[in-house]
Write a structure and sequence with these properties.
CATH topology of the largest domain: Rossmann fold
CATH architecture of the largest domain: 3-Layer(aba) Sandwich
Order of helices and strands: HHHHHHEEHEHEHEHHEEHEHEEHEEH
Number of helices: 15
Structural class: alpha/beta
Strand order of the largest sheet: 1-3-2-4-5-8-9-10
Radius of gyration: 22 Å
Helix content: 25-40%
Length: 459
C-alpha cells in the first residue's frame, strides 16, 4: 500500500482543511515558537485550535487521509506489555498486528506479520539441551520492527542465550499508531521484559539498536541489579540536530508529520509522526536523568557505532561513554571510513568500515547489526535502499535501482566512476562483530568460547 509523497501531503492538507493550510503558513515563524517561552505557549494554544478546526472539518466531505496516517491500534499498550510469560506476550502482540496492521504487500500479509512480530529463539543446537547461558532482550529502533533484531538474536542464540526480541508499542501496524503511545509505553515494555527475564535466569543481557539502545541503557540505569550486560548498536544516546529535535513536542502541534512519505518495504514505516521524535527526545531526557542520579554505569557496557552514521552524534556518544562507563570490562567498537585523528582511549577499538569484496565503502546507521546474508537487507536481499530526492538525483536513484550490483555507503561517499551506489544496509564485518560480542559477554560471565558458532568467520 504505497502512496506518492506528494499525494500524501495533499490528502493530509485536504483532510485537515483550514488546519492544514494554517500549518503551512505557520512554518516561517517556527523558529520563534521554538526559541521563546511565549512562542511555546502560543504553539500549545495554536495546537488546540488546530485540533478543533480538524474536528470541525472532518464532517464536511473532505477526502480522508490514507489509512496509514490514521491511528488504529496500540491504544491500550500497557495491557500488551510482557508481564506474563513471553510466549503469551508474543501471542497477544501478534493478534494486535493481525487486527491493525496494514501490510506492505497484501498478498503476503500473514508472512509479513510473522516476520515483524516479536519472537523468541532458543539456544542453538551446538549448546546442548541444558539450561540456557542466560536470556537476551533485544529492542529495535524507531519505526522499525522486531525483524531488525533477527541477526543479533541469532548470534546470541549461537552463543547459548535464549533471545527475546520485543516489538515496541506503536510499531508494526501503521505509522499513525506512534501518535497514541509515548516513551513511557516503550519503557514499560522494556522494563517488564527484563524483570520477567530476571525471574527466569541468573544472567540477563539487554541489547538495542538506535532508539532501542537508549531504552536498554535507561532500563539498566534504573535497575542495574536486573541487568548483567548492556549492548548498544548505533545508539541514539546523542543525535544530530538535537537542539531542533528538542522542540519536537511544540512543533508537533503545528506539523503532526515529520515525514509523510510512502512505505518502501515491509519491515519499516515510511512516515514518521513528529510526536514520535518528541517521544524519543523525552526518553533521552529520562535516560540522562537516571544516569546523573545513579552515577557511572557499573554494568558492563558494549557500544558499537560507525563514524559514518548520519543519524547519531558519534563523537557525543564517545564522550558520553567515556564519562559514564564505570565497569572496566566496558568497550566501544568504532568503525571508520577516514582514519581518525585521535585514537586515544584504551577502551575504544577502531576498525575500518570498507570492504572491497562486498563493495562497501562506508557503514550507515542502519547497517551495523545486519549480517551480509540477511534475506531482506543483505547483499543479495530483497530490498535495496536507493534513497530519495532531494538528497539524491533522479539519475542516481534510477541507476541504483537498475544496476545488477551497487556499491554501499553513506551520504556523500560516492561509488567508483560509472558505478551505482546505495545506502549501506548490512555490515560486511558482521562475523567479526559477532565474535567481539561473544568475547565481551565471556569477560562478563567468565564463559568465553561458549557456542561452537561463536568463531564463525572469525579471522
Amino acid at each position: 500500500m504505497s502512496v506518492p509523497p506528494s499525494r500524501v501531503r495533499r490528502l493530509e492538507i485536504r483532510a485537515f482543511g483550514v488546519a492544514g493550510l494554517v500549518r503551512l503558513v505557520a512554518r516561517p515563524v517556527m523558529p520563534w515558537f521554538a526559541r521563546s517561552r511565549a512562542g511555546r505557549a502560543a504553539a500549545a494554544i495554536v495546537g488546540i485550535a488546530l485540533s478543533t478546526l480538524s474536528i470541525g472539518c472532518s464532517s464536511t466531505g473532505h477526502v480522508a487521509p490514507p489509512s496509514e496516517l490514521v491511528s488504529s491500534g496500540w491504544r491500550d499498550a500497557s495491557v500488551l506489555a510482557p508481564v506474563a510469560g513471553f510466549d503469551a506476550y508474543v501471542a497477544h502482540v501478534t493478534e494486535e498486528l493481525r487486527t491493525h496492521r496494514l501490510p506492505f504487500d497484501p498478498s503476503m500479509g500473514e508472512a509479513e506479520l510473522n516476520r515483524v512480530a516479536p519472537f523468541r529463539i532458543p539456544p542453538g543446537p551446538e549448546c546442548g539441551s541444558g539450561t540456557p547461558r542466560g536470556i537476551a532482550i533485544l529492542i529495535h529502533g524507531l519505526s522499525d520492527t522486531a525483524f531488525a533484531m533477527r541477526d543479533l538474536a541469532s548470534s546470541l542464540s549461537r552463543q547459548c542465550f535464549e533471545s527475546r526480541a520485543l516489538l515496541l508499542p506503536g510499531h508494526g501496524t501503521r505509522p499513525a499508531d506512534l501518535m497514541v503511545v509515548d516513551h513511557g509505553d516503550w519503557l514499560t515494555h522494556a522494563d517488564a521484559a527484563v524483570r520477567q527475564a530476571r525471574n527466569e535466569s541468573d544472567f540477563v543481557v539487554i541489547a538495542g539498536f538506535s532508539l532501542g539502545a537508549a531504552l536498554a541503557l535507561t532500563v539498566a540505569a534504573e535497575a542495574p541489579g536486573n541487568v548483567d550486560a548492556v549492548i548498544g548498536v548505533s545508539p541514539a544516546y546523542r543525535i544530530r540536530s538535537s537542539a531542533l529535535a528538542r522542540q519536537a513536542r511544540w512543533i508537533a502541534a503545528l506539523r503532526p508529520w515529520l515525514t509523510a512519505g510512502p512505505r518502501v518495504e515491509f519491515a519499516r514505516y515510511g512516515a514518521t509522526p513528529t510526536r514520535a521524535l518528541a517521544s524519543t527526545m523525552a526518553l533521552l531526557g529520562t535516560m540522562d536523568a537516571r544516569m546523573r542520579r545513579r552515577g557511572a554505569l557499573q554494568t558492563p557496557w558494549l557500544v558499537v557505532q560507525s563514524d559514518d552514521d548520519e543519524v547519531v552524534d558519534v563523537a557525543g556518544n564517545r564522550r558520553f561513554f567515556n564519562a559514564n562507563a564505570g565497569d572496566p570490562r566496558s568497550v566501544l567498537v568504532n568503525y571508520y571510513s577516514d582514519p581518525p585523528a585521535d585514537t586515544r582511549g584504551d577502551r575504544v577499538t577502531w576498525l575500518p568500515a570498507a570492504d572491497t569484496p562486498l563493495r562497501v565503502v562506508g557503514l550507515s546507521h542502519l547497517a551495523l547489526h545486519i549480517a551480509p546474508d540477511n534475506p531482506h537487507y543483505g547483499v543479495s536481499g530483497t530490498y535495496r535502499n536507493c534513497g530519495s530526492t532531494p538528497s539524491r538525483t533522479e539519475d542516481d536513484i534510477r541507476s541504483c535501482r537498475q544496476a545488477e550490483k551497487v556499491w554501499y555507503g553513506v551520504g556523500g561517499q560516492s561509488p567508483p566512476p560509472g558505478e551505482a551506489g546505495a545506502r549501506a544496509t548490512f555490515n560486511p564485518h558482521y562475523a567479526d562483530l559477532e565474535r567481539r560480542i561473544g568475547e565481551f559477554l565471556g569477560r562478563v560471565d567468565g564463559r568465553a568460547g561458549v557456542g561452537v558458532a561463536l568463531l564463525r568467520g572469525a579471522p
